[in-house]
Predict the structure.
Amino acid sequence: MKFYLGQKLSHVTNGTRTQTLSVIRNLVTSTVSAYSSTAIIRSTSPSVVLEEKELFLKFKNCSQKIPYLWLYDNRPSNWHENGQKLTESRFLPKHIRPRSVALENEDKLCIQWEQSETVRGEEYSLDWLIQKTQFKHSDSIPSRQLWAKLLDVNAHNYQEIATNSTALADCLKDVAVYGFAKVEDVPNTNKQVLDLAAIVGYVRETNYGKFYDVVTKADPENLADSNLGLAPHTDNPYRNPTPGMQILHCLKPDAEGGGATTLVDGLHIVELVRESLGNGAVESLCHYPVSFQFKSKNAMLFNETNLVKRDSKGKAISVKFNNRSIQPFPILPTFYTFLEAYQTMEKLINDEANHTHLQLKSGDAIIMDNERLLHGRTALSSGKASEGRLLQGCYVDRDEVYSRLSRLNC
């Protein structure tokens, strides 16, 4: 169905208006309002309303106003087949209007622009328009499932995820949905964590190197290398950017059963804060500036950031929390509101009701989304028994992990 903007409608006289509209209806199976500057194209699904500077699209229970400037800037011919844009938005014409608009096969919008010299119009996929204008993310990444305590944790076999793309996709899906995945039967050899990292992404090297040992030391620079229990936290919030994923591989567990891993869903905690204190508390967690710092013989790291980050729709998508490296809070007008929210968040993080415990054995590994999942551990046993416990870890870029999942799901 097609409707042309311009001379035909503007030159209709009152006496011939009804007859002309009838002809147009028969031609395009549309309803056209000649008594305003708006033209309406309707079908059972979808429908389009043409206005002075934009069109209004209804499609699959979604409604969206789309400026003509946006449509022209994002016309299909302005994109290379590799998915990259060809021209810059600064070259957009100041005024742009379609010469004609047509709905084709109920899944495409065909627009011929006044500035275009080509006879064939630009064809826009309606699914693409809704996805891009409403900032919808790819369906290849499954939706997150928030949790308080998981009683049953999936286990993925190392050899299978290393050799079978379906098994790898299932493993990475767990990371996307729950914030972590457990892998079993990882070869119990030195630096094997790097081979696991290569399966899911690329190693992020830090001052600790490409990988690091987590083992009890007499004089630790980091409390992770003590025999103390560690409250749930995210790793390295003092870095910018913060490492997106962390992998820990257990080579030797604590001989006396200490050092159980504690997992907490940070995004679930944010929702609990909202339920407890209201939206204002979450606002403060998103906007109140905090800083984290770490110093050692070979590093001095500092990062000013926020505890919670949200997407364009207001949904929490990442959390930073580390009680060991956080610095004194700045004194701002909203200090008391923020402090109450922070204290509530900390209490919920340390509440056993929100903890999932894993006792890693030799050959077990865990892949964690470090921007969502908080992890900690119970205290290690003292003396020589604790000296035998050894984990090796590394960091991986988060975007590459989800990129691989997207490609596997395509």
Residues 335-349 form the longest helix (15 residues). Confidence is low (pLDDT under 50) at residues 3-43. The chain is about 25% helix and 25% strand. The first strand starts at residue 2 and ends at 4.
